[in-house]
Structures are given as structure tokens and as C-alpha cells.
Amino acid sequence: MNNTPLPKDIPLDLPLPEWLLVLLLVVSFLAHILFVNLMVGGSIATLWAEIKGLKNKEYDTLAKEIAATITVNKSIAVVLGVAPLLSINTLYTVYFYTANSLTGIMWILIIPLVAIVFLLTYLHKYTWEAMHKMKVLHISINVLAVLLFLFIPLIFLVNVNLMLFPEKWMSVSGFLSALTLPNVFPRYFHFLGASLAITGLFISWYMGRKNYPFEEYFTVFTRAKVKRIGYQMALGASVAQFLFGPLVLVTLPAKGFSWSMLGIIFTGVAIAAYAIYYMIKTLRGTDDQLDRYFKRIVVAMSIVVLFMGSGRHVYRANAIQPHRELMAEKTAAFEAASKAAREEAINQKEHESQALATAEASGDLTAKGKAVFNSYCAACHKEKTPLVGPPVTEMKEIYTNHKEELIQWIRNPGKKRADAPQMPPFPQISATDMEDLTQYILTI
């Protein structure tokens, strides 16, 4: 931790109990990421199906139907993203904003990139018929949208990953530098696998609903055929997670591991294996049994998502806890020093007020002028040597026989010196005190 930066925390009370904010973060993030998965996975599935549709019209129809859901899912994802964004900002302010600042321009580009990809998605969706004779161009629009859909989550992931490595902050110099940190790409591929798995189950449900007018769109494919396509996508992606998952674990620094975190993760793995078993059983069954285990699979996968999201939060809390403790010590020391400085300033002010009152009572105008000077001017000006501003002796040289100009300058100063800050105005000094102050400066 010797080279780890230790900024001061922001000494403000949390708006809610910490446990409630953590719960809100985990639950709201899982709701948000579900629709992000559907948005990203849906865009990939649309591109795959539209390319296959060049040879088989039924796949083009499938692509069009999947594309119709992307814009809805992206809107829900954006709305549901507000709560976790606010929660993580509140719980991990220093870590989140430090990561944002270190990735610089790429983090700022998220907003225009999101706007562009949403416009491309709408363009692709609503020009399906108009561009049916320009499929290469239409697919190219989708390719660009998919690339952006794949890139934007990578920016978020890099930032969230960077939060875990305060010891690396001093060596990170932008997005590409942060991209080389351990665990970035294993986590990213794990995210893509989850997106495709969830999208596959979504396709099976969405196009298998009884009120979905399947026969109006498809002439060759059956509901069972499309359901099987969805199940196959979900199964393939879920099996791939058993490769990506261990990669995530082995590339995670050991500092965040705990038995509770591992227990949560491996419980999720066991439930995922349960869901995969029933996906395989479904695909091996007959067409009329395709819905038999669907609810069981969805419930199991939902629990897996909950466990994985909770495990990730536990790891993050464990990983940065030592740094947070050191930062809390620095914050406490700063608050103690700040309190002492405020108390000293109050005591100094009381002393100056008392000195001013004593000077006024004595009738000694020089003493009163000095008391006014100590109250308003001594923080920036010494008698014979420069401090923030010039010494008093220099003021005397400039304003001897020009007392009114000195008064005017104190009340409304400008900037004369390039090597010194501009002096603030002092309109609050009374006319009597100003007379005594300037007389003191010019006779010191």
C-alpha cells in the first residue's frame, strides 16, 4: 500500500442506512443488467439471424422479430440504470469518480455513443421493409450498432474494475491503460455469455407465448423450432460460462476473496449446473414437452444471477476494505486538524475583537488601526516581507500622500501583480475603522 493514493473521504452522512443502500445497489443493478443483457444479446442474435436470412427468409423474419424487442429493452435498461448508478456513487464516491477521471474522455463519450447506437437501432428497426433490397447496407447498420453495443458495456466494466485497484491508480493513464488491468476481459466475456444465455431463454418465451401471432410471421418455422433455437443459444452460452467463470476467479486478485464470497459463487455455480441439466433434458425431449421445465430453468437462472451479483459485491467490498480503512484514518485526521483550525480561528477572532475593543476603549488610534489590520489584513500581509501580498512598507511607499486612493483600493481592489492573486474587496470595513486602518498603514 506504500504507493497507493489515500484521498480524504467526503465527510457527509449517507442518505440511507448503508445496508439499505447496498441492498438497493445489488437489486437495482440486477434488474438493470437483465435488460442490458437482453439489449446486447438481442442485438447479437439479430445480426446472426439476419445474416442467415440471406439464404433462408425465415431467419430474416426471426431477426426482425428479435430486433423489435431491442428498442424496448434498451429503454427499460436506461430507466433501471438510474438507481444503481446513484447507489454506487453514494456508497463508493471516491472510488467511482476516481475511476471515471482516470479513464477520462472515454467515460465522457458514453453519452454520445449511447445516443448514436440508439439512433442506429431505430434506423435498423424501421427500415426493414424499405431496405429489403439493400440487405448488405441494412446488415451493415446492424453491425455498427452491435459493435457499439459491445463497446459501451466494456467502458462501464473497465471503470467498475478500476475501482477495485486503488494501488494501480498512479500507474493508469487513460482507458487503454486501464484496459490492461487483470480481470477486465474475463469479466467481459462472462458478461457476453450471460447476455446470450438470457436472450436465448427470452426468445423461447417471447415467441412461444400463446398470444404471440406466430403464424402471421413465419411460414416454415414452427414455434417448436424457434423455441429450440432459443434453448440452444441459452445452453451454449451457459456451458461457455463454465469456462469464463473460472477465468474470472483466477484473474481476480486474492485480496478480495473470502469464504463467504466463495460460498456464494459456488452455490450459484451449482444452481447453474441444475439449470443446464434441465435445458439439455428439454432439448432431448419432444416438441410438446418444450415448456415442461421452462419455469424451473428461469427460476434457477434468476437465482444464479442473484448469487453472482451478490458475490461480486462481496468481493468488491472485501477488495477495497483495507484502502477504505486507511482512507478513514486520513479523513479522521483531516477532520481533527480542520476542527482545531476552526477553533484556533475562532479564538484568534475573539482575541482580535477583544484587542479592537481594548484599543477603542483606550482611544489609541494606532492600536485600533493595528487591531483592524490584524483582523482583516494580517493573513496576507506582513510588515516588512512579502506573504500572499506585498509588505506594509511597500504600501506606505505607494500611497503616502494618497490616502483616499488606498481606501478606494481596499474597498474595490483590482489585480496588479502577475505573481500574486487578486486581493478580495473589503466593503464591510466601516468608515471609522477604514480611517484608522489606513492611518496605521501609512504611519507604521
Comma- or semicolon-separated keywords:
3 domains, mainly alpha, 444 residues, Cytochrome Bc1 Complex, Chain D, domain 2
Description:
By secondary structure, the chain is mostly helical. It folds into 3 domains: 12-181; 201-335; 363-443, Cytochrome Bc1 Complex, Chain D, domain 2 (Orthogonal Bundle), CATH 1.10.760. 74% of the residues lie in helices and 0% in strands. The mean pLDDT is 91.
Please sum up the structure shown.
The chain has 444 residues and is mainly alpha-helical. Helices cover 74% and strands 0% of the residues.
Which class of secondary structure composition applies to the elements? mainly alpha
Number of domains: 3
Number of helical segments?
17
> Strand count, sense and closure of the main sheet?
none
Tally of extended strands? 0
Query: What is the alpha-carbon Rg in Å?
Result: 33 Å
Kindly estimate the percentage of residues that lie in beta strands according to DSSP.
under 5%
Lay out the secondary structure:
Layout: H1 18-52, H2 57-80, H3 82-91, H4 93-103, H5 105-108, H6 110-126, H7 135-162, H8 175-179, H9 184-206, H10 214-217, H11 223-251, H12 259-284, H13 294-362, H14 365-376, H15 392-399, H16 403-411, H17 431-443
Helix pairs in contact: 1-2, 1-3, 1-7, 1-9, 1-13, 2-6, 3-4, 4-7, 6-7, 9-11, 11-12, 12-13, 13-14, 14-17
